[in-house]
Amino acid sequence: MDGPVPLHVHSHFSLLRGASSVEDLVARAAELGYPALALTDRDALYGAVRFVQACRAAGLAPILGCELTLEGGHHLTLLAESQTGYANLCRLVTLARAGRPQGTAALPPDALAGRTEGLLALSGPRSGEIPRLLRAGRRTEAAQRAAWYRERFADRFYLELQHHLLPDDAWLMAELAALGMGLVHPLQATPWAVAALPGLTGRWQ
Question: Which candidate, 65, 97, 139, 157, has a CA 20 to 30 Å from the CA of 184?
Fold first, then answer.
């Protein structure tokens, strides 16, 4: 499978963060010739069934995921590589929402233990824990937390690079890249991804 794949995409199921229906997103991805597409709504999997159905109809490989809120307000992007990964993703979303006020979520990071099989993790957008630490000048802590996530996801944890032309985006990308090189860490630019990421595409066709 050749070509870029968008790996961090919100639909209108992410209130105030996405405006397009899953069908419109899939139609646009097909129009642009993408071989696959991920759906990563915030703390929700509401669009999963419609998304898979739309991708099948359009001939795209669907990638099911979620931008999950952790305690402290940090965000972590999770992508399911398999049925086991999707089951773990459902469990994590449920745990993040359990006992919380309606419409909110906060997963204790330790709840990831034993629930990462079949999941690929990206370090998240600017609101991810590692970017927040870097923006606060806490580089040592950022490296420690990157190693912590790496330990839990093994070779399935990537530092996520996003450039939205905000004032410090170029600086933040350089900081993340330096951190990745220092830790021999994989780097992944989003929303684009190299389709050769192992195990992601073709699981849900």
Answer: 65
